[in-house]
Structure formats: structure tokens, C-alpha cells
Design brief:
This protein is of the alpha+beta class. The chain folds into three domains: 95 residues, no CATH class; 243 residues, Sandwich (Jelly Rolls), CATH 2.60.120.590; 99 residues, no CATH class. It is 27% helix and 18% strand. The chain has 15 helices and 17 strands. A seven-stranded mixed beta sheet has the order 2-12-9-14-7-5-6. Strands 1-11-10-13-8 form a five-stranded mixed beta sheet. The longest helix has 24 residues. The N and C termini lie far apart (56 Å).
Length: 481
């Protein structure tokens, strides 16, 4: 099934044509074709042979038959099973069957509808309608299986994350662990970095097969970034997007054990990634649905744009009204979340009714999110709030008037039992997404577009060159807390 769904659709003029219905045609003549044909073409064969059945039923049968027309035809001979309306699921082979496009390629028909989920099955559709691109069968099969086994062995030691959200203490509905490239970096993460207002005690060195995969992820993600920029309408990177090669130095590994473990709609924290980050997400084990929806601005409606639980619910309700897109993530697939993803979209892994067990991981899905932490956003450089804690970097997403502006805010309020302070400061970044103190952080030398960054802490003398006076000059009184 995964092989069929993930197969790229062939771009052929025949893909949208329905073969002429000839009552004298024989079944062998129609089904004697290459099984590598597009989904649209296979569906047209079924439509011609079963004009009395609706397209959704035929497509669902084709999917259940793993793309085999002959098997689908055999299934259609069986008497239909009665199903309740609540359990009915509809599919589409590609968005070409449900959208119309103008001469400039822009969609005329709205893609999503209120309360509806549109499933994206092909790399072309995923790239055209989301800020993501996907590569199926990313690693050689034996490497993917070995990496999965390596992480499955460690996954029982992963922990949930507990934090305070407004007046509630919540725990993440899945487990995770943070990995970096060396034990020295792990110690620095535990003693200097802050997550959800507190330090993380369990930070590990990346496992051998994780490090091997990281090199391939890095190469592929950089190729995808270059290709996406060149194919964009302007041919230019986004404002605040870094021109430097993407170099992952940190990885969060998430474990979803069973169909009910999930993560709600969210955008990833920007505090150490900076504006317009790119993330490489490698899925292993059980296949799950990755759902995305675009954030809807509220035209400066103060009631909806406020930072409160009620305001978030109202904003989420407006987003729900727009519907959502769903991307199937099978074993050994690499999803690249491009530079507009975190600021303009939210994503989630929704609970499922059931999952198909994987021979290695059972009911577990393991997900590695490779990230690049910027040296100039190390906590020693970023503002501290009145609580004396390094601040969190956030972006305005729902208020139309300030949408896209970045801000430093108190992080201490995420810790259960702590109220935090009301610290707020607009954040400033240059065209390449670097803060005002970037040159101080690099010892007076701003990163060029063809040079990779060192991981923060690799050379303390270099980062501290220029002294604290330069830092105070960039931050004013903010750093004094």
C-alpha cells in the first residue's frame, strides 16, 4: 500500500482521459498495461468498466488493492459491505481531480473546506499546496531498518514533556529525547540551554546510525532548499531566510507508541533556530498522518489575537473552518519543512483509530527532526527577562497588522508553579535572519553565505571576543534582566 501511494504520478496527457467505453472490449485488453501507470489512468480504467459506481468508491477499492487494477476488479465483483456514515473515508488520487487551475497555474477552486481533510498522496501535490517536500524510500532499506532498530532499543527510556499552558499543567502525548553530536555539546545543552522555561537533564550524544543518516539528510535538504528557491515565483530566498548551507547539529527524536499517541497543532519554537528555519523530518516505523493547516490572520481583532487560552481557541476555530491537509508519512520517508512553514502554518500528528504494525517497531513510529541551532542565538547572547531566564523567540501569527514580526518574551511562565513576568521586546533580524549582535557572537566576523556555522560552545574564546560591552551595546538594558 505504501509503495503504491508514494509512487510519483507520471506526467502524461493520458492521465486525465477516460478510455472510451466499448461494450465489445475484453477485460484482458484493458488491464494488460504496465502497473507503473498513474493512479488517474488506473482509475479511468475502473470508471470505464464500472460506470454505475461513483469515483470515490472505485478509488477506495484501488487503494485497498495496492494499486492493482486486476485485484480491484475482483473486489468489485463481491457484494458491497454496509458501512455507517461515520466510518466512511473518502480519498482522491491527486488534486488534479478536485481542483481546476488557471493559465498561470493558480488554483481556482478552494482546496480545503470547513471541517474537511484533503489527503495529499503525491510529492507534486505536497510541494504545490504546502511548504513541504517529501522523499520516499530515502535511505537504503537495510540502513533505514538498522536505524529504526537502534532507536527502538532506546525508546523505552524516552520521557514525556510537562509544561504549564496558561492555567493548566499539560504533558505531551508522546515521548521524546534530545540528541547532539558530542558529549561536550550534550553537557552544554544541559547547563546552558532552556526549554519551556527550564533546563533539560536528559541530552544524549547522537547514535552512530543517526550520525550516518544526518550526513545524507544534510545533503538532500540543501538540494531541496536550492530547488525550491529556484522554482519560486521570485527565484529568491525569503526575507530573513539564511543563505548559508543548512547544517543540522541537533535532533529531537519523537516516539509515538500506538495509534492514540499524538501531538496537537503547533509551530516549532524559533528560539535557537531563528527566523525562517528549515527542518528535516525522517519518519521510521509505523506510518502516520501528518496534518497541516495555514494560520488565518484575524484583521487586528484584539479579542482573537490576544495571548490567552480563549483567544487561541477562537483562532483555532477560524483555522478549523478552513479545513486541513493530510500527508501520509510511511516508513523511511524524509519530509522537508521549508522556510515558510513555522511562521505561517501549524502541523500535528493526529490520533488514529488503528495502525498497521511494523515488523521492527511494532506499533511505534519514530521520528527524527534534524535542526540547525544558530551560534548567534546561544542563550548567552539573547535577552533575559525579569526572571533572569533567557527569553523565548516567538512570531506574530494571528494578528494581521503585526503578522510576521518577531518578539522576545518571558519563558519562565512555562514552568509549572511559576507565573513568569510580562517581559516583551520586539526582535530585530537582518535580511539573512541574523540578530544585531551577530558580529559579536562570531568574534567580529559575520557568517558568509558559503561558510557553515560552528555549534555554539565549540570555541568559547571566539564567541566572547569583543567583550560584554559589545553585547550590552546590542541589547541595551535587556540583558541585565
Amino acid at each position: 500500500m505504501e509503495t503504491f501511494i508514494s509512487r510519483k504520478r507520471r506526467r502524461s496527457s493520458i492521465s486525465n482521459e477516460v478510455p472510451p467505453q466499448d461494450p465489445k472490449c475484453d477485460l484482458q485488453g484493458l488491464t494488460d498495461f504496465n502497473e507503473e501507470e498513474s493512479t488517474d489512468y488506473k482509475l479511468s480504467i475502473l470508471i470505464s468498466l464500472h460506470p454505475d459506481k461513483d469515483e470515490g468508491t472505485l478509488l477506495e477499492t484501488l487503494l485497498a488493492s495496492e494499486g492493482s487494477v486486476e485485484r480491484a476488479l475482483e473486489c468489485l465483483k463481491l457484494p458491497p459491505k454496509k458501512r455507517s456514515a461515520a466510518s466512511t473515508t473518502s480519498y482522491q488520487s491527486s488534486l488534479s481531480s478536485i481542483t481546476r487551475t488557471g493559465k498561470d497555474g493558480a488554483a481556482i477552486k478552494q482546496l480545503t473546506k470547513k471541517g474537511k481533510t484533503v489527503h495529499l498522496y503525491t510529492p507534486e501535490d505536497i510541494e504545490a499546496h504546502t511548504p513541504c517536500s517529501i522523499i520516499y524510500n530515502f535511505l537504503p532499506p537495510e540502513e533505514a531498518d538498522a536505524l529504526l532498530q537502534e532507536l527502538v532499543d532506546e525508546s523505552p527510556t524516552y520521557k514525556t514533556n510537562t509544561f504549564q499552558l496558561f492555567d493548566r499543567v499539560v504533558s505531551s502525548p508522546h515521548t521524546f529525547c534530545l540528541y547532539v553530536d558530542s558529549w561536550g555539546e550534550a553537557e552544554m545543552q544541559k547547563t546552558q540551554y532552556v526549554y519551556d522555561g527550564k533546563k533539560v537533564e536528559d541530552v544524549r550524544r547522537s547514535l552512530p546510525r543517526m550520525r550516518d543518516a544526518s550526513h545524507k539528510v544534510r545533503e538532500t535538504v540543501n538540494q531541496e532548499i536550492t530547488r525550491r528557491i529556484r522554482s519560486s515565483p521570485t527565484g529568491q530566498k525569503l526575507h530573513h531566510q539564511s543563505p548559508a548551507p543548512w547544517a543540522p547539529n541537533t535532533a529531537f527524536v519523537n516516539c509515538y507508541d500506538g495509534p492514540r499517541e499524538s501531538v496537537g497543532y503547533h509551530s516549532d519554537h524559533l528560539t535557537y533556530l531563528g527566523p525562517r528555519p528549515v527542518i528535516g523530518s525522517l519518519s521510521l516505523g509505523v506510518a502516520r498522518e501528518f496534518r497541516v493547516r495555514k494560520i488565518i490572520a484575524t484583521d487586528d481583532d484584539a479579542a482573537d489575537s490576544g495571548d490567552s487560552d480563549a483567544a487561541r481557541k477562537r483562532a483555532d476555530a477560524k483555522a478549523d473552518a478552513q479545513g486541513q491537509l493530510s500527508i501520509h508519512l510511511p516508513h523511511n520517508s524524509l519530509l522537508v519543512m521549508h522556510a515558510s512553514m513555522q511562521e505561517e502554518w501549524k502541523h500535528s500528528i493526529a490520533p488514529a483509530r488503528t495502525v498497521s504494525p511494523h515488523p521492527i517497531s511494532g506499533n511505534k513510529r519514530i521520528n527524527i527532526t534534524y535542526r540547525h541551532y544558530k551560534a548567534n542565538l546561544h542563550p548567552r547572547f539573547t535577552p533575559k527577562c525579569g526572571c533572569g531566564v533567557p527569553t523565548v523567540l516567538r512570531v506574530v501569527q494571528r494578528q494581521a497588522g503585526n503578522r510576521g514580526k518577531y518578539m522576545w518574551m518571558c519563558y519562565a511562565g512555562y514552568v509549572p508553579g511559576k507565573d513568569g513576568c510580562k517581559f516583551f521586546e520586539w526582535a530585530v533580524f537582518d535580511e539573512d535572519g541574523d540578530p544585531p549582535w551577530a558580529e559579536v557572537a562570531k568574534g567580529g566576523k559575520k557568517q558568509s553565505s558559503d561558510a557553515g556555522e560552528k555549534f555554539p560552545g565549540e570555541n568559547d574564546d571566539e564567541y566572547m571576543k569583543g567583550g560584554m560591552e559589545g553585547k550590552r551595546g546590542a541589547l541595551g538594558s535587556v540583558d541585565e534582566g
